Every structure is written in structure tokens, then in C-alpha cells.
UniProtKB/TrEMBL annotation:
One Gene Ontology CC term in the entry: endoplasmic reticulum
Family that this chain belongs to: Belongs to the DNase I family.
Protein name: Deoxyribonuclease-1-like 1
Domain Endonuclease/exonuclease/phosphatase as annotated: residue spans: 31-280
UniProt organism field: Gambusia affinis (Western mosquitofish)
Record's signal peptide: 1-23
InterPro entries: Deoxyribonuclease-1_AS (IPR018057), DNase_I (IPR016202), Endo/exonu/phosph_ase_sf (IPR036691), Endo/exonuclease/phosphatase (IPR005135)
Alphabetically ordered keywords of this record: Disulfide bond, Endonuclease, Endoplasmic reticulum, Glycoprotein, Hydrolase, Nuclease, Signal
Record lineage: Eukaryota, Metazoa, Chordata, Craniata, Vertebrata
A single GO BP: DNA catabolic process
Main location: endoplasmic reticulum
Ranges in a coiled coil: none
GO molecular function, one term: DNA binding
């Protein structure tokens, strides 16, 4: 295999994730603690590509521990996401910088596909409950979404990254946020998600009876207590959780779909490489879509006769064609005496890859 073909094949492995995500009909909601995401991490190309691979799996992805003082890291991440997945359109919605001190503040950031979901409301919880003012270090930034593709149609997401030393109090106060949002928007389809620090030494079992978010039977905790959401082999804690309110919303969830996404295993990273991305795995859940309903035999046949190729199939077919053309072009240049003087250094190889990659994207449009 020539060096150009090898490099093209490496790029193909990067694109496979896009093809697989694009071809699915499910609707995925994710929550991901990025572990001190700011300017330093955004300057690491390998990390940014991995983040793009992870985030583009999701229709809506909540990002936490975003510490972007200059506001450049999040913009760069969105640009990388848009470059990585051209078959979907992406935007983001960010909270203000939250925290009790100027020296340490974070943002909640929602990255979402504008072609599958629409923001219909946002609300920064004021954290002024009488008798329990300033309960949160990072008060929830609540967002309401409309997703016509899903059976639930519209839902509300309440994010929370608790302070480890105050987990019990903040989780209990999150119940007040839930009731506040239900009354304000008259919407029962509410999901609470994020790094709750709801395990190991941060949430003692003796304190769980004091947390209304855990004792109210209308709330369904979808990530089990025995589920490890951490990257380090030396830890096994279920910090990151997804909780849904009400039987209707719980019934709109694909059974057993709530789980962490082990990107280290899927992307064949070492522990060190994975920790460069984050010390948490993202957690995710699938919502049932309109396509989940059972079709009549004649309806199914009609769809098969008239439907277009799956986007993933189109992507791979286009790439194989580009790979073949790239190999032929390189072979012809190698045989042409006019090109004997050409030095195929790294710059020229990547120039060819860039051109072929652009043609590949054009082919999949």
C-alpha cells in the first residue's frame, strides 16, 4: 500500500464515526463533563477531534466544566464539530459563567443539531428559594427543546454539576428547581442530567433518604448506582446521571438505552489519551422516535421503493470512489516522467488528502 493510500485509510477511520452516526434514526441526549475545558485543551488537535466524534453522536449534548475565560475555546469546538459532521447542522447555547468566586467559574453549554431539535425556551434559575438562597455553586441553566422527530415532541433539560463537598444539599435543592420549571412552563416532560457526583464518598448512603430527588417515586434514575462513569481504572463511581420525571417521559425512553459511552474502548485510546479528553465518560439515553412505530406491510414496501440511500452508505461509497481515484492519480503521476522530480513530502501528501476530502464531502451532499 502506498503512503498516500495509507494516509487516506487513516482518514477513513476518522470518517467512519460520522457515517455511523449519520445513518441512525434514533434521537440521543448526552451529558458530558469535559474536565476543565478551556483554551489549553482547545489547542490540542487530537483532543478536539475526539470531542467532535463524541458530541456528534448526540442530537443534544450538555457540556459541563467549560472554563472558557476568553470565549474562544467553545467557538473553536463548534467549528470543529461542524467540520467533522457536515450532514447535520449544529449550534450551541451557553449559560453565563457561574460560580461563587471569580477565580473558579464554569458554564453549561448545550450543543444541538438544529435540523432535529429547536430551542423554545431558556431559563437561568435565580437560586433565591426563600430559606435556601444560594443553594448551588453553579445554578442550573434550564433549556426547553422541541423535537418533532421524537414521540415525546417537547421536553425540558435541567443540567447540574454539583460541588463534591455539597452534593447532598445541591441534589435535594434540584427538586425545587424541577417543581419551579414544571409550574412555569406547564411541562411535565423534564429530564435532569449531568455530573451529580452522586456516588462514592460524595453522597453517603445514609444521606440518600434526605434527597427528595431520590425519594420521589415520579422520578426515574436511568443510570444505575453500579455503573462506572469515570475513565480512570483506579476508580469506579457512578457520578454522572440521567433522571426523567413522570411515566410519560419514562415511557418515551428506549428501554435499557441509558448508559455511559466508553470512548476509550470504542476509539482504542490508552488511558492517558482518554484522560487528555476527560476523566468522565459521557452518559446518554435514546428517545423513541416517530420511526419506531410499526408500519403496515404496504407502507413498508412503499418506503423501501422510494427511500434514498442511508447517509452512512452514501458516505462510504463516495469515500471508496475517492480513494480509488486518489490511488489512480498518484499512480499516474508516478509513471509520468514529468513528475519524476516531485518529492512526495508530508505537505504534498496532505494537500492531496485535503483535496480528496473536499471532493468526498461534496459527493455526500
Amino acid at each position: 500500500m502506498s503512503s498516500v493510500s495509507l494516509l487516506l485509510s487513516l482518514l477513513l477511520s476518522l470518517l467512519l464515526g460520522v457515517a455511523i452516526v449519520r445513518g441512525g434514526s434514533e434521537f440521543r441526549i448526552c451529558a458530558f463533563n469535559l474536565h476543565h475545558f478551556g483554551e489549553s485543551k482547545s489547542n490540542k488537535d487530537e483532543v478536539m477531534i475526539t470531542l467532535a466524534r463524541i458530541i456528534t453522536r448526540c442530537d443534544v449534548c450538555l457540556l459541563q466544566e467549560v472554563r472558557d475565560r476568553k470565549g474562544t475555546a467553545v467557538s473553536k469546538l463548534l467549528q470543529t464539530i461542524r467540520w467533522y459532521d457536515t450532514r447535520n447542522q449544529y449550534d450551541l447555547l451557553a449559560s453565563e459563567r457561574l460560580g461563587r468566586t471569580e477565580s473558579y467559574q464554569e458554564q453549561y453549554v448545550f450543543v444541538y443539531r438544529t435540523n432535529t431539535v429547536k430551542v423554545t425556551g431558556q431559563y437561568q434559575y435565580p437560586d433565591n428559594m426563600p430559606g435556601d438562597e444560594d443553594a448551588f455553586s453553579r445554578e442550573p441553566f434550564v433549556v426547553r427543546f422541541k423535537a418533532p422527530k421524537t414521540s415525546i415532541q417537547e421536553f425540558v433539560l435541567i443540567p447540574q454539576h454539583t460541588t463534591p463537598t455539597n452534593t447532598t444539599k445541591e441534589l435535594d435543592a434540584l427538586y425545587d428547581v424541577l417543581q419551579n420549571v414544571r409550574r412555569m412552563w406547564r411541562n411535565e416532560n423534564v429530564m435532569l442530567l449531568g455530573d451529580f457526583n452522586a456516588d462514592c464518598g460524595y453522597l453517603a448512603k445514609k444521606n440518600r433518604d434526605k434527597v427528595r430527588l431520590m425519594t420521589d417515586r415520579s422520578l426515574h434514575w436511568l443510570i444505575g448506582e453500579d455503573t462506572d462513569t469515570t475513565v480512570k481504572l483506579s476508580t469506579s463511581c457512578s457520578y454522572d446521571r440521567i433522571v426523567v420525571h413522570g411515566e410519560k417521559f419514562n415511557g418515551a425512553v428506549v428501554p435499557s438505552s441509558a448508559q455511559p459511552f466508553n470512548f476509550q474502548q470504542d476509539y482504542r485510546l490508552t488511558e492517558e489519551e482518554a484522560l487528555n479528553v476527560s476523566d468522565h465518560y459521557p452518559v446518554e439515553v435514546l428517545l423513541k422516535t416517530q420511526l419506531n412505530r410499526i408500519k403496515k406491510p404496504d407502507e413498508k414496501q412503499e418506503q423501501q421503493d422510494g427511500e434514498e440511500d442511508d447517509p452512512g452508505t452514501v458516505s462510504l461509497r463516495c469515500w471508496r470512489e475517492e480513494l480509488r481515484q486518489g490511488e489512480q492519480g498518484h499512480h499516474q503521476q508516478a509513471q509520468d516522467p514529468k513528475h519524476h522530480h516531485v518529492n512526495w513530502n508530508n505537505w504534498s501528501r496532505w494537500t492531496l488528502i485535503g483535496r480528496r476530502f473536499k471532493e468526498f464531502l461534496d459527493c455526500t451532499q
